[in-house]
Amino acid sequence: MRLDRLWLTDFRSYATADIELAPGFTAIVGANGQGKTNVLEAIGWLATLSSFRGAPPDALIRDGADQAIIRAEGRRDDRSLLLEAEIVRQGRNRAQVNHQPLRRARDLLGALRVSVFAPDDLVLVKGGPAERRRFLDETVVAAAPKLDVLRVEVDRILRQRNALLKQAGGRLGDDVAVTLEVWDDKLAAAGTELGDARQRLVDRLGPVVASSYQHVARHAAAVVLTYHAPWREHPDGLAGALRAARADDMRRGVSTVGPHRDDVEVGLEGLAARTHASQGEQRSLALALRLGAHAVVTDAAGTPPVLLLDDVFSELDPGRCQALLEALPPGQTLLTTAAAIPPDAHPDLRLRVQDGQIRPEP
User: Fold this and answer.
1) Which among 8, 10, 13, 357 has most CB atoms closer than 10 A?
2) Selection from 333, 356, 359 nearest residue 346 by Cα
3) β 263-268/271-272 pair status
4) pLDDT in tens, 11-69
5) SS3 of 67, please?
6) Radius of gyration of the chain (CA)
7) Sheet of 14-20: strands edge to edge?
8) Closest alpha carbon to 147 in 259, 303, 66, 287
9) For residue 104, what pLDDT is reported?
10) What is the DSSP string of 305-344?
């Protein structure tokens, strides 16, 4: 999977842009605030119809414009690939693959896969459980797009169950009890399946993340990923855990157990990296998590996703930067930087971003 050319119209800081990309390593250089990350964000949008920076769609449209257009040509499985997306201020955003309109975002999954490392990824190690759950679920879906239906179903069931609990106001009448049983059965089935998928992913990720960390940090260390799902320890699984928590759920008006409360502990040398690792170690671990997920998705899909590395040199010391470059996986990589590219780096293409323009450099 690779992209050969990208066109932008009224996207972020670009009135227009026509960008040819190398099939291997493309370095996008320029001062801060010039629009380097915008290029990666546009590619990420084509893969997921969302911004990896968490920006709302209308923030992606250039000031003064009513819509933004993103188009890309590439190849997937030795076949031509054309991706097109329109982002509008009012109305429904649109996308199509090889001139075929998509009815829903889920239909895009797998057309283009990307792996993104951004400065905010430090939250994968330092942040709360929600960030790590999101990372797990995004990776699960990237490796097996059909599981997106399961993820959405679990979210829907939880919303309905929580709405019922809140509406009940702590009173478990007959009607509430019957309806709650229905939602509990649904949550037990779908939640268990999602938990199992996450556990399988963590089992696959663990050794790959440890290997990636060794490459980036340039020394071996005991890196362990542990999936924490207390409901899995109940003799009757999630169904039993929901029954045991019913009184507490009724009192609090919210679902207190289930896959929405799970976490992944990142351990380094037997200690929790969130609280005991240094800043440099945490950044290396965050990058190792992304590289590990990239490897797992590559193995599952049979072809590597496009690797997007945003401002990675500012997050790592020179030794780790050099180690990262040496450990870049096969496939297409786009890297942005405001800093000097290490002398031993040899990108296939250098693009310079300045004053809203992006041009190749010698």
Assistant:
1) 8
2) 333
3) antiparallel
4) 999 999 999 999 999 999 999 999 999 999 999 999 999 999 999 999 999 999 999 99
5) strand
6) 22
7) 14-20, 2-11, 67-76, 79-88, 94-97, 100-101
8) 259
9) 75
10) PEEEEESGGGTS-HHHHHHHHHTPPSS-EEEEESSPPPTT
Q: Which amino acid, residue 106?
A: R
Q: What residues form DSSP beta bridges with 361? A: 350
**Nearest residue to 238 (alpha-carbon basis) of 199, 202, 189:** 189
pLDDT in tens, 195-243: 999 999 999 999 999 999 999 998 889 999 999 999 999 999 999 999 9
Q: SS3 for 124?
A: helix
Residues 6+ apart with CB under 8 A from 257: 230, 231, 238, 241, 242, 244, 245
Tokens of 272: 């929790």
Residue with token string 């037997």: 270
Query: What is the mean pLDDT of the segment spanning 131-152?
Result: 94
Q: Quick check: 297 and 305 in contact, CB under 8 A?
A: yes
Mean pLDDT of 266-281: 95
- Half-sphere exposure of residue 292, counting CA atoms within 13 Å on the CB side? 28
How many whole angstroms separate alpha carbon 93 and alpha carbon 97?
14
3-state helix, strand, coil in the chain (%, to 5): 50, 25, 30
Q: How far is the C-alpha of 154 from the C-alpha of 189, rounded, in Å?
A: 9
Name 17's bridge partners.
8
SS3 at position 283: helix
Question: Which residues have CB under 8 Å from 306's CB, separation 6+?
Answer: 1, 2, 3, 43, 47, 112, 113, 114, 115, 331, 332, 333, 334
Q: What percentage of the chain has pLDDT greater than the value 70? A: 100
> Is-contact 97 132, C-beta < 8 A?
no
